[in-house]
Amino acid sequence: MQHIVTGGNPDIVGHLTAGALARAALTHEVVTSARAALDAVRRRASALLILVADTPDLDGLEVCRELRRHEELAACRVMLVVTGAASRSLLEQMAAAGCDDFVVLPSGGPELCTHVEDLLELPRRRHHRVPVELLAWVEAGARVFQGQTENLSLNGAKVRLDTPLGSVDWVRVRLRREDHQQFMAVDARVVWQREGGRELGLTFIDQTPETRRQLEALVLWDLVEEEGLVRVYLEGDFVETTDLQPLAQRLGPRVDFDAAGVRHVNSHGARRWAALLETIAEQHEYTFSRCSTAFTTQACFLVGFLGRGRMVSFMAPYHCDGCDRDETRLLQAAALVPEGAGFVLPRFRCPQCGGSLRFDEIPERYLACLSPPRLP
Ligand SMILES: [Zn+2]
C-alpha cells in the first residue's frame, strides 16, 4: 500500500480520498510543518509528498531539497502546489530542488488525480465508465431479457434487467440510445450477477472493428454536473462517423471538456468537432482540460479546433537524455511562463536516474494553440 503525505492544502486531501483515486490502495497523512513532513516520509517510506511550494511554516522547496540530500529518501516523489501563476524563478528553483511535479491552483479533481496517478505509476484511468442509460436487450439462447445499461465503457457494461437472467455465462447484448433508432449488438461474458440476477456485469468479447466503432459512438462522451459546471468527458476517436450533434443540446453556460480519452482525430472528425463548438452560444464559456496528445496536436494545427475556448491543461511529451526515458506529463497552461513570443517550460527530475526530464517537442509547434499569450 502506497503512502502519501500532504501538507498545506486541505482541498487536495479531499480530491485524493474521493473519486478515481479512492479505489487505489493508498494511505494518507496530513502534516502542518516542514519538519513533520520529513519525519512522516522517513517513518512511512512514503511514495509521494504533496506540499505547498512556499508558505512560512511549510516551505515545500526546502523540504524537497532536504529530501534530495538523503539517498534513502530518494524514492519519495515530490509534488509542489503553487498558488497563482508560476514564474521563471519558481520553475528554476523547483527544477534545482529536484521537484518531480507541480500543480497550479485552482486545479480540478480529475486533473490532480492524473498528476498523482503518473507520479505513483498507477494506471491512468483510460476508460471512463459512462453512466449512460441505454435500452438493452440481453439474449441468452432463444430467451430475451429487457433492461437498461447503468454504465458503459469500451470494454463492458453494467446492465439492470426487468427479470432475472438465471445461470448463464455468455450472452449477446443489443444496445440502443433512446434518442437513436439504430441498435448495436455485441457478444459478452457475464462476469457477475447481483440482486438475484437482475443486475449484470458484462465484459464485451470478440469485438469487430464495426462493433468497436458503434460502441465508441455510444460512449463518446459523458456529462457530469459539478456546481454549475458541466464537465464533458470525451472518449474515443473523432472521425467521419462521429456524431457530436446530440451533445450540443446538453451543454450549459459553463462547460469543461475533459479530452484525456480522445485517442485519434482525423480531419473529418476535427471539422465535426469545430462545428459543434460553433453551436455554443456567444455568452457561454468553455475550457479544455487534460487534453490528450492527439487532441492537443489537432488544436495546434487546425485553426478553430478550440473555438473560443481556453486550454487549461494538456499532455506533454518529456524525455530524459541521461537514461533515454520517455514520459507523458500533464501540464497546466498556468504552469507555463510566457516569455517573448513563447513560453518557459518546466523541467522535472527523472525518476529513473535522477537526471532532468525535458520537454520533447518543438515548443513553438506543440504549444501553438496557447501562444501568443492571450490577454485576460
Ligand atoms: Zn533519466
Number of helices: 10
CATH class of the largest domain: Alpha Beta
Q: Number of domains in the coordinates?
A: 3
Terminal-residue CA separation: 44 Å
Strand order of the largest sheet: 6-7-8-11-10-9
Mean residue pLDDT: 87
The helix/strand class is: alpha/beta
- Proportion of helical residues: 10-25%
Major sheet: 6 strands, antiparallel, barrel
At CATH level 2, the architecture of the largest domain is: 2-Layer Sandwich
Bound molecules: zinc ion
Q: Could you name the ranges where pLDDT drops below 50 across 5 or more consecutive residues?
A: 372-376
β-sheet strand percentage: 35-45%
The best one-word shape is globular
- The CATH superfamily name of the largest domain is STAS domain
The total of beta strands comes to: 22
What name does CATH use for the topology of the largest domain?
Answer: Transcription Regulator spoIIAA
The radius of gyration over CA amounts to 23 Å
